[in-house]
Specification:
The protein has helices at about 5-20, 40-50, 65-70, 75-85, 120-130, 150-155, 195-200, 265-280, 300-310, and strands at about 1-5, 25, 30-35, 60, 90-95, 110-115, 130-135, 160-165, 175, 185, 230-235, 245-250, 260, 285-290. The chain has about 300 residues and is of the alpha/beta class. Bound molecules: threonylcarbamoyladenylate (TXA) and magnesium ion.
C-alpha cells in the first residue's frame, strides 16, 4: 500500500520497522526496501521479497557520520573527508565491519554504509532509531524504482511504500571501497568520479585491479537493472527496425516516432532513465533499441547500467 510521507505515514513506517517488518521508502537515488539492519528476520524478508541471492550484501543507511563510524571496525581518515564532502548524499562507503555486529545478509567482513540525502529517508531513520539495510526496492536483476508506483509494481507484497515523489538522482549511489590504501570504485553511480577524485586523489577502477586480489562488489552481476524487454545498444538507431514490437530510447533529438527521448545532459538523463525503461516495458515492446551514450567518464554510471540491462 502506498502512503504519503507525512508525519502519520512516517510514524506507521517506523512502527513496522521496529516490529521487524519491511517498508519501502524514497531516497535521493532510488527507492529502497528498508529493514532493521541487525534483525535477522527483517533482513531475511528483504532477500525473500526481492528474490535476492544470499551472497549479495546490503547497504546500511544511517542518519549521520557518527552512526556510520559505529558500524565500522576502522574508520579511515579518507572516509571522514568523503563523508564531510558528500554526506548526506549518493555515496556508499565500504569499510571493515565492527566485530560486535552480526552480518548484514552475506558475510564479507565489511559493511557498506551511507547517509541518504532525502528528507523522508532522514526523518524515517530518526523516527525508527534503527540503521536500515535497504537495497533498491525491486525484484533482483530488475529496473530500480524511482517512484512509489514502480515499487508496488515490482514488489506487490511490500506492506507499506512511503511516497516521497520521484527520486531526484534516479540512479543508484556510487559504491567506493575505502578499506585499502587507495579508494576503489565498486559501482559507478550518481556521484561522479571527478568529484570523488577532488577529495581523494587517485581512485582505482575495477579494471585497475587485474590480479583478482581485491574484493569485488558482489552485486555487480553481468545482467542487472534489466527491463522485461530485450535491450540492444546501438550507435545509430536503424529506423527500418522500428515497429510496434520495438521501442527506442535515445537522447537529444530523434526522428523516431514514439521514441523515449532523454536529455543529452548525463545528470538529467540518469534521472529519467529507469522511468523511461518502465514506460517502454509497460508499452509491451519486445525489444528496446538504446542509442549508446558517449564514451566519457560523465556517462560511466549510465553506460554501466545500460550494459547490464543489455547483457
Ligand atoms: O542508491 C543506492 O545505493 C540504493 C538506495 C536504496 O540507497 N541502494 C542500492 O542497493 O542500490 P543495492 O542493494 O541494490 O545495491 C548495493 C550494492 C550491490 O552491488 C552490493 O553488492 C554492494 O552494494 N555492496 C553492499 N555491501 C557491500 C560490501 N560489504 N562490500 C562490497 N559491496 C557491497
Ligand atoms: Mg539494486
Amino acid at each position: 500500500m502506498i502512503v504519503p510521507a507525512d508525519a502519520g505515514g512516517i510514524r506507521r513506517a517506523a512502527a513496522l520497522l521496529r516490529a521487524g517488518s519491511v517498508v519501502a521508502f524514497p531516497t535521493e537515488t532510488v527507492y529502497g526496501l528498508g529493514a532493521d539492519a541487525f534483525s535477522e528476520k527483517a533482513v531475511a524478508e528483504v532477500y525473500r521479497l526481492k528474490n535476492r541471492p544470499s551472497w549479495n550484501p546490503l547497504i546500511v543507511h544511517v542518519p549521520d557520520v557518527a552512526a556510520a563510524r559505529g558500524l565500522a571496525r576502522e574508520w579511515p581518515e579518507v572516509a571522514d573527508r568523503l563523508a564531510a564532502a558528500f554526506w548526506p548524499g549518493p555515496l556508499t562507503l565500504v569499510v571493515e565491519r565492527a566485530p560486535h555486529l552480526t552480518q548484514v545478509g552475506a558475510d564479507t567482513g565489511t559493511i557498506a554504509v551511507r547517509v541518504p540525502a532525502h528528507p523522508v529517508a532522514l526523518r524515517l531513520l530518526e523516527a525508527c532509531g534503527l540503521p536500515l539495510a535497504a537495497p533498491s526496492a525491486n525484484r533482483s536483476e530488475g529496473i530500480s524504482p524511482t517512484t512509489a508506483e514502480h515499487v508496488l509494481r515490482s514488489l506487490p507484497d511490500v506492506p507499506l511504500v512511503l511516497d516521497g515523489g520521484p527520486a531526484s538522482w534516479g540512479i543508484e549511489s556510487t559504491v567506493l571501497d575505502v578499506t585499502g590504501p587507495v579508494p576503489r570504485l565498486l559501482r559507478p553511480g550518481a556521484l561522479g568520479l571527478r568529484e570523488i577524485r577532488e577529495v581523494t586523489g587517485k581512485v582505482l577502477l575495477p579494471e585497475d585491479v587485474a590480479d583478482g586480489s581485491a574484493r569485488p562488489s558482489p552485486g555487480m552481476s553481468k545482467r542487472h537493472y534489466a527491463p522485461r524487454a530485450t535491450v540492444v545498444l546501438t550507435d545509430e538507431v536503424d529506423l527500418a527496425l522500428v515497429d510496434g514490437t520495438v521501442g527506442v530510447l535515445t537522447y537529444e533529438t530523434a526522428d523516431v516516432p514514439g521514441a523515449e527521448i532523454l536529455s543529452a545532459d548525463p545528470r538529467e538523463y540518469a534521472a529519467d532513465l529507469y522511468a523511461a525503461l518502465h514506460r517502454l516495458d509497460d508499452a509491451g515492446v519486445a525489444t528496446i533499441l538504446v542509442k549508446s551514450p558517449p564514451d566519457t567518464e560523465e556517462w560511466l554510471a549510465i553506460r554501466d547500467r545500460l550494459g547490464r540491462a543489455a547483457a
